[in-house]
Amino acid sequence: MDFKNELYKQIDKNKGILTTAEVTRLGIPRMYIQTLVKDGVLQNVERGLYCSSDCFVDEMYCLQTKYKRTIFSHDTALFLHNYTDRNPLQYSLTVPSGYNTKVLRQQGHHVYSIKKDLFTIGLCQRKTPFGRLINTYNIERTLCDVICSRNQLDITVIKEALFHYAESDEKNIPLLMTYADQFRVSKILSEYLRIIL
Q: Which of 47, 86, 169, 190 is exposed most, by the fewest CB atoms within 10 A?
């Protein structure tokens, strides 16, 4: 097997990103990663994560590649759905209950824990500004999340998102209300929607 060629294929497949976990899974000795780093083909972004030298570091993609059980949520999900133009300086992530959030919080991210049976409700994928797919929540779930956490978020961002949703041709009010019941925000959401719709 031509290990270098296999690494190039993997880098190309991942749009410039490579992890040591993938290299191990492919049965390629890790020394070949260091060879590519020395040759200037790869740069070490952080432990176990590499990016090709000719591409921009996609922080969102890299973060989710490293922490696979995270889902971008709240104001970060609003940004991914184009419901706010505020580019998040720190990301909001949701994790299942019991997940160790210490490192993510130390990095400055806003981390929300939720019961495991609610964790994947509304899961979807959106593209980062660099065009890579990452896990986030659909807009209906996201609106419920921001209303649940309204005391921790800018109320202006929430209101703008609700106005944007009300004007959207793709809104799904029955689904939104189903989620609102599941996340116990149906009363407050109804009050917001009465004003907006």
A: 169
Query: Does pLDDT of 17 surpass 90?
Result: no
**17 membership: H or E segment, kind and range:** strand 17-19
Q: What would the mean pLDDT of 50-75 be, rounded to a whole number?
A: 89
Confidence (pLDDT) at 197: 67
What is the pTM (predicted TM-score) of this model? 0.85
Q: Which amino acid is at 35?
A: T
Taking the C-alpha atoms of residue 150 and residue 45, their distance in angstroms, rounded to an integer, is 34
And the tokens for 94?
């949701």
- pLDDT, mean over the chain: 92
> For 105-135, how does the pLDDT look when each residue is reduced to its tens digit (9 = 90+)?
999 999 999 999 999 999 999 999 988 899 9
Three-state DSSP at 96 gives strand
Neighbours of 144 (CB within 10 A): 26
Count of helix runs (H) and strand runs (E) in the chain: 11, 8
| Burial class of residue 51 (count of CB atoms within 10 Å of its CB; 0-12, 13-18, 19+) | buried
Going from N- to C-terminal start, the domains of the chain cover: 3-57, 65-196
* DSSP state, residue 172: -
Specify whether the CB–CB gap between 36 and 23 falls below 8 A. Answer: no
CA distance linking residue 18 with residue 42, whole number of Å: 9
Q: DSSP secondary-structure letter at 24?
A: H
Which H or E run contains 49? strand 49-52
